[in-house]
Amino acid sequence: MKALSIRKLTKKYNNGFEALKGIDLDVDSGDFFALLGPNGAGKSTTIGIISSLVNATSGTVTIFGHDLHKDRERAKTCIGLVPQEINFNQFETVKHIVQIQAGYYGIGQKEARQRTERCLKQMDLWTQRDTVSRRLSGGMKRRVMIARAMVHSPKLLILDEPTAGVDIEIRRSMWELMEEVNKQGTTIILTTHYLEEAESLCRNIAIINNGQIVEHSDMASLLNRLNMDHFVLDLAAPVKAAPHCQGYQIDMISERSLSVGVPKEQGLNRLFEMLTAHDIKVISLKNKSNRLEQMFMDLVGSSAEQGL
Amino acid sequence: MNNSIAFWTIVTKEVRRFTRIWPQTILPPAITTSLYFLIFGKLIGDRIGPIGGVGYIDYIVPGVILMSVISHAYANVVSSFYSTKFQRNIEELLVSPVPNWVILAGYVSGGVVRGIMVGGVVTVISLMFADISIAHFGISAVVFILTATLFSLAGFINAVFADSFDDIAIIPSFVLTPLSYLGGVFYSVAMLPEIWQKISLVNPILYMINAFRYGLIGVTDVDIKFAFIITGCFIVVLSLFSLYLLKKGIGIKT
Q: pLDDT in tens for each of the 254 residues of chain B?
């Protein structure tokens, strides 16, 4: 069953800006799905429409078989949203924020208290339950929003840049948490600017640019299409110019470091042989960018060139 | 989906909000009305003499109570719903399956509860200055609730259209307060020149204050049935308009 099915979705704002130009999108039940795109591409508009915060101009959105327009109540019950910006009442306590949200989903007081306790413990926030939310740290606020989104046990959890602005330790713990939630059967749609996050967590991906889906496939086959890796080489001794190595694209970054494009069919062994022949000793190498980032730049760049 | 749970969640949230800040929401009307009763009722009122067969201080009590109900029911909903928009936690409601009529009923009920609490406080204070024996309890209670409902609805509409905190202060300052003072709180419209009597009749607050005065002390300048019809019509129209705004997402969705 499809967790989410979008057909011919368009959105034109009052100022004439066409944020979505008839997109189609499918997300399978149980998937961990990445929705990526540059700023202003249409990601937030898409998520806004799915979560009823933005009115669509035309098109349909179906959530677990329930049409968002015709069967609104059932469709909305399936969704939990963690928005990009902090949007809870800053004067409420952590406990009340989560309990109130449970009430909005028709969950009675006793059960709401139990669910709140479970979600806050899962988010490591139970000791902060009586703290007024504005006094929490940025990372804690993000976790409150996740607890709030999960209190009614949604089948589809939408995470709109959930790790933006949090430190690496919290980000890693949130990744583990998201993986755990997904393993328990919750479908997750993730938008993020940390492509490393999408690459390591998500199984399927869509890339949106200028209001259109420019890529919609599984992560593995998308990355397989990437035919060149980019590395930075640190050199033992300075060089005056980038050496010429047949089949490789080499540029100077500085006297002691080179940027190298390595086609997949060539590999690194031959490169090192050729560098050795040029009397260049490499002391270390690292990936210039992660693989998805490279693919993302290629896709977004080519769609812009085609005027999409 | 259990709509009654969602409804009580909104009402409880609203009541907790204004009781948490009671020095801003409950205390000020107690002080203001004490001053009204002291200055207009005792000091000046003793020199004015009776109106409609009752002492001046007894005459102004219903108007002062209802004026507090009007301003606080309105203020509760306009400030709460606008803050919800401003902090964007309206999104918690929009994402959830709560129907629009439950959202409206919840916020309006919050305003009505605050109106009842403030009205109760003002009534207790008025008993320290005036000797009131309720003439028609049923009429008083119904007018009280209907008036609080009407102005809660008006506050909701104001909040939907408001884009800044200035926008939620304009209507109370420039419309509600003048209409309340000119609605016969401190005088009978029969005391006005004929032309002003006629102009006063287009002020809807005049009907509510007089209906409430009739309920409390049995004195009125207007037909009670007509007052109920006007109040009821306003409630129906404002409710339908509020539901239309919610359905279209005007002021709350893009």
A: 689 999 999 999 999 999 999 999 999 999 999 998 888 878 888 788 888 888 888 999 999 999 999 999 999 999 999 999 999 999 999 999 999 999 999 999 999 999 999 999 999 999 888 888 888 999 999 999 999 999 999 999 999 999 999 999 999 999 999 998 899 888 899 889 889 989 999 999 999 999 999 999 999 999 999 999 999 999 999 999 999 999 999 988 88
Q: Order of strands across the sheet with A228-235?
A: A249-254, A257-263, A228-235, A282-287
How many other C-beta atoms can be found within 10 angstroms of the C-beta atom of residue A220? 10
Q: Report chain B residues whose CB lies below 8 A from the CB of A46.
A: none
d(CA A40, CA B33): 54
State which residue of chain B sits closest to A149, comparing Cα positions.
Answer: B92
Global pTM value:
0.85
CB proximity A284 to B under 8 Å: no
**Interface contact A55-B13, CB threshold 8 A:** no
| Residue A5, phi then psi, degrees to nearest 5 | -135, 120
Which of B92, B94, B252 has the most A C-beta neighbours within 10 Å, making it the best mutation to test the interface with A?
A: B92
Question: What is the per-residue burial (b if ≥16 Cβ within 10 Å, else e) of A139-164?
Answer: bbbbbbbbbbbbbbbbbbbbbbbbbe
Taking Cα atoms as reference points, which of A137, A13, A97, A99 lies closest to residue B87?
A97
Out of B9, B88, B248, name the one closest to residue A103 (CB).
Answer: B9
Is A148 in the B-facing interface, judged by CB distances under 8 Å? yes
Among partner residues B8, B12, B249, which is closest to A55 by beta-carbon distance?
B249
Å between B247 CA and nearest CA of chain A: 10
The two tokens of residue A288 are 């210039």
**3-state class (DSSP) for residue A7:** strand
Instruction: Please report, as a single letter, which amino acid is at residue A98.
Output: V
Report d(CA A236, CA A104) in Å as an integer.
64
Other Cβ atoms closer than 10 A to B233 = 12
A99 min Cα distance to partner chain B (Å): 9
Q: Are B242 and B78 in contact (CB under 8 A)?
A: no
Residues of A whose CB is below 8 A from B253: 52-55
Contact B97 A77 (CB under 8 A): yes
Phi, psi at A248, each rounded to 5°: -125, 150
The predicted complex's ipTM stands at 0.89
Chain B residue with minimum CA distance to A109:
B5
In this structure, are residues A87 and B89 in contact, taking their beta carbons and an 8 Å threshold?
yes
Cβ contact, residue pair A81, B95, below 8 Å? yes
Tell me the domains of chain A and their CATH numbers.
Answer: 2-223 (3.40.50.300), 226-305 (3.30.70.1560)
